[in-house]
Specification:
Helix content is about 5%, strand content about 40%. The protein is built from 1 helix and 11 strands; from the N terminus they run βββαββββββββ. It is globular. The relative contact order is 0.26.
């Protein structure tokens, strides 16, 4: 049976429904993710575009990533919460912040990136692949 999950903004106007499992779940400690989330790291799940259905109106903020690629962040036009994002350069995936699923049973991350910017008190489990 294929897993279906629903992610939404705070007011519920913008939603992303996924089918199947994510191809990657990661935490990112970069300063841009810290600012975007208002937390000390961002956690996201990437899905193939064909496995994501978007409903609602979004506004887009484009940011140039640390590696020089443009990334489009889609946020709710009413409440401002980011619901999904993707690269512009033929990116075959859509990333969804795990918190948008509001599901405490969501699978854990397998990757931790930009750890040189990780807050000292944050501990990432040892079985997660660590990247500076």
């Amino acid at each position: 049976m294929m897993t279906t999950r629903n992610a939404a903004c705070s007011c519920g106007q913008l939603q992303a429904t996924t089918s199947g499992d994510p191809v990657r779940i990661s935490v990112c400690h970069c300063l841009a993710c810290q600012r975007r989330t208002g937390s000390v790291f961002g956690m996201q799940a990437r899905f193939p575009r064909a496995q994501v259905q978007i409903r609602g109106e979004s506004r887009v903020y484009t940011r140039i990533s640390d590696d020089g690629n443009a990334v489009d962040f889609h946020f709710c036009a009413q409440c401002g919460a980011t619901v999904f994002y993707h690269g512009q350069e033929d990116d075959p995936h859509i990333a969804i912040p795990v918190g948008a699923f509001a599901d405490p049973a969501f699978p854990p991350p397998a990757f931790s990136v930009y750890e040189e910017r990780k807050h000292r008190w944050v501990t990432i489990p040892g079985d997660v692949e660590h990247h500076s």
